[in-house]
């Protein structure tokens, strides 16, 4: 899977490095992305998600189940793309 947050849908943006002489070269602004394991209480299993720091804050704020339902409804992740760890 590419560098896209499964909760917020954030992905890398393109931009320019601008030197002192105003010479512009292409670069990408990557997302603060990492893999994190969560215990999904509703299903009784561990899942692994690729999430950004903003996605982690969202999960802490609204809960894992609500964040997953919101991400699925917005099309950021599909239920079959969520990795279930050793059931």
Automatic annotation (TrEMBL):
Entry keyword annotation includes Hydrolase: no
Highest rank taxon of the organism: Bacteria
GO MF annotation terms: structural constituent of ribosome
Transmembrane regions listed in the UniProt entry: none
GO biological process: translation
CC terms in the record's Gene Ontology section: ribonucleoprotein complex; ribosome
Family matches, as SUPFAM superfamilies: L28p-like (SSF143800)
The protein's name: Large ribosomal subunit protein bL28
Organism name: Prevotella histicola F0411
């Amino acid at each position: 899977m590419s560098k896209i947050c499964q909760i917020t849908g954030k992905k890398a943006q393109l931009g320019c490095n601008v030197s002192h002489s105003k010479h512009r070269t292409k670069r990408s602004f990557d997302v603060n992305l990492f893999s994190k394991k969560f215990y999904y209480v509703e299903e009784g299993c561990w899942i692994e998600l690729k999430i950004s720091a903003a996605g982690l804050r969202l999960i802490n704020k609204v809960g894992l189940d609500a964040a997953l339902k919101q991400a699925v409804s917005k099309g950021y992740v599909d239920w079959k793309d969520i990795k279930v760890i050793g059931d």
